[in-house]
Specification:
With 411 residues, the protein is an alpha/beta fold. It folds into two domains: 99 residues, Urease, subunit C, domain 1 (Roll); 291 residues, TIM Barrel (Alpha-Beta Barrel), CATH 3.20.20.140. It contains 18 helices and 16 strands. The chain has an eight-stranded parallel beta sheet. Strand 11, helix 11 and strand 12 form a beta-alpha-beta unit. Helix 6 crosses helix 7. It is globular and about 65 Å long. The structure holds N-(iminomethyl)-L-glutamic acid and fe (iii) ion. The site of fe (iii) ion has 5 residues, from loops. The site of N-(iminomethyl)-L-glutamic acid has 12 residues, from helix 5.
Length: 411
């Protein structure tokens, strides 16, 4: 039922009676949302009393449905031109990720195309990708630069991300990833110096003038890309200008990235297929989140990250789609499905990893990632009394997700 009333961002969700499933506590409750935040969570009769005089723009009857927090995608590379469908065929024929990269393809291919693209072209494709992510339930998405590598194109990408941040109904945490690869014609040391001496000072200036608002710094710490020492220098310099450390580590080779991240106070490290036992312990102790990316391990047929061991050791495990030209996946429900089947996570663990823990990995768990009074009103409503259908169904989630609500606004 929908009644039309004044406040633009005021939605009331009701589920009379007790819904089944692990999230009964949320689905059987009534939520009032005003000004973009969740106003109250509680028993239907109590909330009805509390808001008896209130008017709502929209009232959604959620009987037979589940209300969940909006999904949080903790790792994406969504701004680029030039897809790599031709490389998919090469990989299926047996070429490895690094073989393609070293032959000048992979990230280099995308960099070439992204440098040539206009800001407008990049924005239009990015916007469309964000809409597809949101349609699949994501309401907060981490978005990286990293297909420019030179200052000019990195800034172009960051401006595109900033524009979406300001104009679209979706949460964005933006990441400077100028150390995504060593640009052609430079050594890793030259690239590291360029980032520290030229990119980061410019970034700091633009942050101070309010032109862009970057949240995180990222480096691809990998054999043949940035070694541990270069990674340390770049991350430390980023931290010094106020960015949260959130980087790619221990993906294809054991690099001791986890140990480094724990030492530097990283918020999160992504991939970790090759993390050491000591690295896992260090991450647990440092409360450094592990952002696991099941699409990448699947696409590249890598060994699976040790999600079970991390969970048992108390690491904060989050999930991300890693959307990029290598892993072309917009959908966090698909990611949760893969995490359960291939990484042996339970459905509860996968949901936590794709909501509150992913928000933690972005430094936003105080405001995002769960249904609590005072938090941002980011919710999804699925057309099933069992929330697990979101993971159990293998694809086609756009039809299962009835509503996506961002800051209290029904999209
Ligand atoms: O997280 N590993 C490095 N970066 C991306 C892939 C980027 C690309 O291949 O374009 C990742 O998987
Ligand atoms: Fe990535």
């Amino acid at each position: 039922l929908a009644r039309h009333l004044p406040c633009a961002s005021s939605v009331l969700l009701t589920v009379p009676g007790g819904a089944r499933g692990a999230l009964t506590v949320t689905t059987s409750l009534l939520k009032g949302l005003t000004d973009g935040c969740i106003k109250a969570v509680g028993r239907a009769d109590v909330i009805r009393n509390q808001f008896s005089g209130a008017t709502f723009e929209k009232v959604i009857d959620c009987s037979g449905k589940c209300v969940l927090p909006g999904l949080v995608d903790a790792h994406t590379h969504p701004v680029w031109a030039g897809d790599r469908v031709h490389e998919f065929a090469m990989k299926l024929a047996g070429a490895s990720y690094m073989e393609i990269h070293q032959a000048g393809g992979g990230i280099h291919f995308t960099v070439e195309h992204t440098r040539k693209a206009t800001e407008e072209e990049l924005f239009n494709t990015f916007k469309h990708r964000l809409e597809r992510m949101r349609r699949a339930g994501s309401t907060l998405v981490e978005c990286k630069s990293g297909y420019g590598l030179n200052l000019e194109t990195e800034l172009k990408m960051l401006r595109v991300i900033e524009r979406a941040k300001q104009s679209m109904d979706i949460g964005i945490s933006s990441t400077y990833c100028g150390a995504h690869s060593v640009p052609k014609g430079k050594t890793a040391t030259e690239a590291t110096d360029d980032i520290i001496n030229n990119h980061l000072p410019k970034l700091k200036e633009l942050q101070l003038s309010g032109e862009i608002h970057v949240n995180n710094i990222d480096v691809f710490c990998e054999k043949g890309v940035f070694d541990l020492e270069s990674t340390r220098r770049i991350l430390q310099a980023g931290k010094d200008i106020g960015l949260q450390i959130n980087f790619h580590g221990d993906e294809l080779h054991p690099m001791k990235s986890a140990e480094l991240g724990a030492e530097l106070g990283a918020r999160a490290i992504s991939h970790l297929e090759e993390v050491s036992d000591e690295g896992i312990t260090a991450m647990a102790r440092a409360k450094c989140a592990a952002v696991l990316l099941p699409t990448t391990a699947y696409m590249l047929r890598l060994k699976q990250p040790q999600a079970r061991k991390m969970l048992e050791e108390g690491v904060i495990v989050a999930l991300g789609s890693d959307f990029n030209p290598n892993a072309y996946c917009f959908s966090m429900p698909m990611v949760m499905h893969l995490a359960c089947v291939n990484m042996k996570m339970s459905m509860n663990e996968a949901l936590v990893a794709a909501t509150i823990n992913a928000a933690y990995a972005l430094g936003k768990s105080d405001t995002h990632g769960s249904i609590e009074a005072g938090k941002q009103g980011d919710l999804i409503i699925i057309n099933s009394p069992r929330w697990e259908h979101l993971i159990y169904q293998f694809g086609g989630h756009e039809a299962l997700i009835n509503y996506v609500i961002v800051k209290g606004k029904v999209i």
